[in-house]
Amino acid sequence: MINIGLIGFGYWGPNVAKNIHANKELNLYSICDYKEDRLEKARSVYIEQTTYESDYKKLLQNKDIQAIAVAVETSGHYNLVKEALFAGKHVYVEKPFTSTVKEAEELQELAQELNLIIHVDHIMIFHPVIRKIKELIQNEELGDILFIDAMRMNLGQIKKDVSAMWDLAVHDLAIIDCLMDGKEPFYINSVGEKYYNPKESLCFLTLRYEGFISHIQSSWISPLKERKLIVAGNKKMVVFDDMKTAEKLMVYDKGVNVVSGDDIEYDDYVVKTRDGDVWIPYIKQEDALYNSINHFRECILENKQSISNPTQAIRLQKILESADEKMNK
Ligand SMILES: NC(=O)c1ccc[n+]([C@@H]2O[C@H](COP(=O)([O-])OP(=O)(O)OC[C@H]3O[C@@H](n4cnc5c(N)ncnc54)[C@H](O)[C@@H]3O)[C@@H](O)[C@H]2O)c1
């Protein structure tokens, strides 16, 4: 049994708490939030099944706690993760890992020196639909990837310490990183606007990778809530609609055929679109957050690196920092 202390019980912390609690091999040892109303909320759910603290240092000083889960605002991650590592705790931290690449590199080095695990909750790579898409790519069912188009939009929740791109596009970048085995873009561009917020609330990120291109839209000012991903290959194309309650993944046997041959004049070819079957693969329902937390547990037990480790987070944050430079020009 691994004892975990959770810091942050705001909007997302309750989901982390629920999934730690649901895992029979983890013990939600303590919940910490410096806002009394949030601690009251936690008490109303877990009553005597855990302990409650308003000072996170109590969790760090507690020798019975082996791991800390950090679910506070992004701007608070760096200090808490650093202190948790110095206190000898393994760390689960929400995305995005830190506010800068420099901070992320420092924490990565520290965790290595202290032989501790940092698991960044890039939750989407633990999503069963993303795992299925990866399987389809690996089995060459989609063919060569032509483009990846992602949309994450909603009305709110407008944040102060991060832009919509750092908050939302980080999920899509993690998906691309996972699907394409850590491939990095060689061209990055972005535009965004700072409506209602010191950071951008609406961002369009454009990426060029060897062999394919990608467009990622992140918005907190949309009338519609969308969570959509299109991965188009030259054989098949898939659409993942995470707003649907079932049948989230559709595989389209659609594409473009280039026809050439003896009956076609020299140097000439014919391009024909292909409109075939649509297939809905069976995907077992699993909670991505449960999977992410369980992977963290396995990494602690087996003393192995998380697949969602600081190295991956740094790859994503480097893209976000380059995109920020373009956006501010
Ligand atoms: N994985 C996902 O899909 C997902 C979804 C939403 C949010 N998140 C991430 O979760 C994190 C938290 O986001 P949120 O929307 O819940 O924020 P939030 O502002 O609603 O909640 C943060 C909570 O942490 C508490 N807190 C902050 N610093 C503290 C400290 N030093 N000690 C004790 N308590 C402290 C605050 O009082 C607050 O209650 C962010 O990193 C965000 O990006 C992840």
How do the helices and strands line up, and which of them pair or pack?
Layout: E1 2-7, H1 13-22, E2 26-32, H2 36-46, E3 51-53, H3 56-61, E4 67-70, H4 77-86, E5 90-94, H5 101-114, E6 118-121, H6 128-138, E7 145-155, H7 164-179, E8 187-193, E9 202-209, E10 212-219, E11 221-233, E12 237-241, E13 249-259, E14 270-279, H8 288-302, H9 310-327
Parallel strand pairs: 1-2, 1-4, 2-3, 4-5, 5-6, 7-10
Antiparallel strand pairs: 7-11, 8-9, 9-10, 11-12, 12-13, 13-14
Helix pairs in contact: 1-8, 4-5, 5-9, 7-9
Nicotinamide-adenine-dinucleotide (NAD) binds at residues 7-13, 32-35, 38, 56, 71-74, 76, 94-95, 121, 123, 167.
Please explain how this structure is put together.
The chain has 329 residues and is of the alpha/beta class. It folds into 2 domains: 2-122, NAD(P)-binding Rossmann-like Domain (Rossmann fold); 125-288 and 319-327, Dihydrodipicolinate Reductase, domain 2 (2-Layer Sandwich), CATH 3.30.360. Helix content is 34%, strand content 31%. It has 9 helices and 14 strands. The chain has helices at 13-22, 36-46, 56-61, 77-86, 101-114, 128-138, 164-179, 288-302, 310-327, and strands at 2-7, 26-32, 51-53, 67-70, 90-94, 118-121, 145-155, 187-193, 202-209, 212-219, 221-233, 237-241, 249-259, 270-279. The strands form 2 sheets. It has an 8-stranded mixed sheet, covered by helices on one side. A 6-stranded parallel sheet has the order 3-2-1-4-5-6, sandwiched between helices. α1 (13-22) crosses α8, α5 packs antiparallel against α9 (310-327) and α7 (164-179) packs across α9. The longest helix has 18 residues, at 310-327. The model has no long low-confidence stretch (mean pLDDT 95). Nicotinamide-adenine-dinucleotide binds at residues 7-13, 32-35, 38, 56, 71-74, 76, 94-95, 121, 123, 167. Residues 2-122 form the Gfo/Idh/MocA-like oxidoreductase N-terminal domain. GO terms for molecular function: nucleotide binding. Pfam families: GFO_IDH_MocA, GFO_IDH_MocA_C3.
